[in-house]
Amino acid sequence: MFRDLGKTCGVAKLSEIQHVISCCLPYNAVILNGCLKYLLVLVNFLRFYFELTGTLLKIKSSNEKSMDKLLHAVLLVFLYVVTLLKMQLLNIWFPSLGRVDVDHVITRKMQLIAEAEQLKPVFMKEVDSHFTEFVNSLVAKSAFLDSSSSASLFPASCSEKELHKAKSLRAPPEHGKIFTARRSLLDELFEVSHIRTIYHMFIALLIVFILSTLLVDFIDEGRLVLGFDLLVFVFGKFPVVFCTWLCMFCATVIIPYGLFSYWAQGYCSSSHRVIRSLFYGTLFTLFQTVGLGFGPTYIALSYALPPASRFIVILEQVRLVMKAHSFVRENVPRVLSSVKEKSSSVPIPRISQYLYFLFAPTLIYRDNYPRNPMVRWGYVATKFAQVLGSLFYAYYIFVRLCIPQFRNSSQETFNLRGLVLCIFNSILPGVLILFLVFFAFLHCWLNAFAEMLRFADRMFYKDWWNSTSYANYYRTWNVVVHDWLYYYAYRDFLWFFGKKFRAAAMLSVFSVSAAVHEYVLSICFGFFYPVLFCLFMCFGMVFNFILNDRRKGPIWNVIMWTSLFLGQGVIICLYSQEWYARQYCPLENPTFLDYLKPRSWSCHIQM
Questions:
Q1: Share of the chain above pLDDT 70, in %
Q2: Per the count of CB atoms within 10 A, which of 12, 65, 290, 461 is most buried?
């Protein structure tokens, strides 16, 4: 019926009527042409609306809930456009009426404008939420069907080698992470001018920091001081850092791959498979704990590397440990499965696949990843330039907001008022550092390497800023690390102990994450002050259960941001106080306990 209506009231019919009236009544031609123009737009839109609705109704049975919401969104589109057309028709003056009530027309037009403005946010919200939900459900179903039915794509006449290759392209037996080609969220958001303006505001703030520093130095020194002594200090002893990284990387390439290859090649024919597995497993564990675990830490401490240089060594140490574990964890089940199926070939990845994984911005091993067709070197240069800009941004934050505040803090008597003021004064630099770490590393650095390697899955983070719960924040802040913890810590814990111990599995994951974070900070700063560990295990665990996924209102997002701001203030304040306390109150012969006791609690007494 709707298609017949569109044909009878189509473009040709209305065009003929418009032409006849224009010839017969030239005095009113302009007016009638305007009316018919908007009537033509309305009829065409009605025809498009009815055709779209009919098409959606045909596929409604496949996804009932999502399609109902999408039909509702289409109806809102129709109402919104009709309201705009009503507004346009009121702009046409009809001389045949003799006289126009201007006040009435203006009043009615303002009413319609108000109606359209009220309808616009509802329409945008409905379309965004329902259409996103609909598309996500389709993508999830497509990925699930692709991973579950890929075996059926190969006929029974395929050779065993081809079948084994097909299995290697699928997700692992426990349905692990599925990589798909997708862009990073900020790259999509920066295409919107409103979001891009926020990025420009941060650049303007950096310019203000630079001008402030230059003007203060000019007033104090009588000249422009362009020294970057702080950056030179924190990134000192770079040759030691590079040699340490090169040794770590070469060891990670040779030892895990060699141990796995020797174990896999002789496992099928071995008569003592358990002993063989224990032997090679022990060697791999020793390499992880002693080679990658103890060696870089010893070098960082014995060579007294500055903080940023230590961060490079320790973070690379943690990254390579996680990469090596993922490689072994993903490939050992494949070997066991091939032995169980009595396959003639042993599934050992090529060394080139392992090398690609070591550089790829992911901690989950796969033989193959989705790849982009080409490298955009301009994009790579832009991302590295943004990393460099973020580094200078952090420098000016410390120079203007942190160092003047904490330089003389150890000379003041410790009291509650001073601590509270210190925490609240540290919120601004703490939040800015949080944003810079996220933008520089999780967005720019990872995207730069992904682009150089043509790595197509760029979901390194999600919209963590919209989180209404800490559970969602932990899942979306750093997707790269979260995936590793979820598949190799949480799910393996449940596989080993059973699904009844979900709370224990969550607690174990929190404990491991908190311990690793505190280990990194302790080695890099040169002292043990478990502020971050306490925030993780105490407040983080409590908020994880209080601010859970059932909290969806905007107020919970406000609470999440408030607690996040306060936490950043506590971290910056307490760690900065401890750093300067150990500079001003050094111990001649410190014992092991002196490294564990906070110096900032007693430094003012010695002064």
A1: 68
A2: 461
Work out the pLDDT band at 167, boundaries 50, 70, 90.
very low
Backbone angles phi and psi of 419, in degrees to 5: -65, -45
The answer for residues whose C-beta is within 8 angstroms of residue 551's C-beta and 6 or more apart is: 468, 469
pLDDT in tens, 324-379: 999 999 999 888 888 887 777 778 899 999 999 999 999 999 989 999 999 999 99
Nearest to 360 by CA among 448, 249, 441, 296: 448
State the DSSP H helix or E strand holding residue 346, giving kind and residue range, or none if neither: none
Distance CA 317, CA 298 (A): 12
Look up tokens 């790595």; give the residue.
Answer: 455
β-sheet bridge partners, residue 455: 371
Select from 210, 556, 151 the least CA-distant residue to 394: 210
* Helix, strand, coil shares, percent, the chain, to 5: 80, 0, 20
3-state DSSP call for residue 395? helix
Tokens at 598, concatenated: 């906070």
- Active site (annotated) includes residue 517: yes
Q: What is the pTM of this model?
A: 0.71
Query: Under DSSP, is residue 544 helix (H, G, I), strand (E, B) or coil?
Result: helix
Q: Is 606 in a helix, a strand, or coil?
A: helix
Q: What pLDDT, in 10s, does the model give residues 187-226?
A: 999 988 888 999 999 999 989 888 888 888 788 777 777 7
Burial 98-122 (b: 16+ CB within 10 A, else e): eeeeeeeeeeeeeebeeebeeeeee
Distance between CA atoms of 189 and 447, rounded to whole angstroms? 15
Write down the pLDDT at residue 193. 87
Query: Residue 224: exposed, middle, or buried by beta-carbon count in 10 A (0-12, 13-18, 19+)?
Result: exposed
The contacts found for 382-388 with CB under 8 angstroms, 24 or more apart, are: 383/444, 383/445, 383/447, 383/448, 383/451, 384/444, 384/448, 386/439, 386/440, 386/444, 387/440, 387/441, 387/444, 387/445, 387/448
Q: In this structure, which amino acid lies at residue 530?
A: P
Task: Tell me which DSSP letter residue 171 carries.
Answer: P
For the record, the structure tokens of 87 come out as 């507004």
Helical pair 238-267 and 273-286, crossing angle rounded to 10 deg: 180
Q: How many CB atoms lie within 10 A of CB 568?
A: 22
DSSP class of 328? H
The torsion angles phi and psi of 272, rounded to 5 degrees, stand at: -125, 70
Residues in the chain: 607
Distance CA 227, CA 84 (A): 59
What residues have CB less than 8 Å from 585, skipping those under 6 apart? 410, 599, 602, 603, 606, 607
Residue 157 confidence (pLDDT) above 70? no
In our burial notation (b when 16+ CB lie closer than 10 A, e otherwise), range 298-324 reads: ebbeeeebbbbbbbbbbebbbbbbbbb
Token pair for residue 107?
């009043």
Using CB atoms within 10 A of its CB, is residue 26 exposed (0-12), middle (13-18) or buried (19+)?
A: exposed
What beta strand segments (E) does 202-310 contain?
Answer: none
Strand stretches in 346-424, DSSP E: none
Structure tokens at 366: 């796969």
pLDDT confidence of residue 78 = 57
Distance between CA 404 and CA 318 in Å, rounded?
33
Could you give the angle at the alpha carbon of 317 between the alpha carbons of 315 and 318, nearest 5°? Answer: 65
Burial annotation 441-471 (CB, 10 A radius, 16+ → b, else e): ebbbbbbbbbbbbebbbbbbbbebbebbbbb
Active-site annotation holder among 104, 443, 517, 604: 517
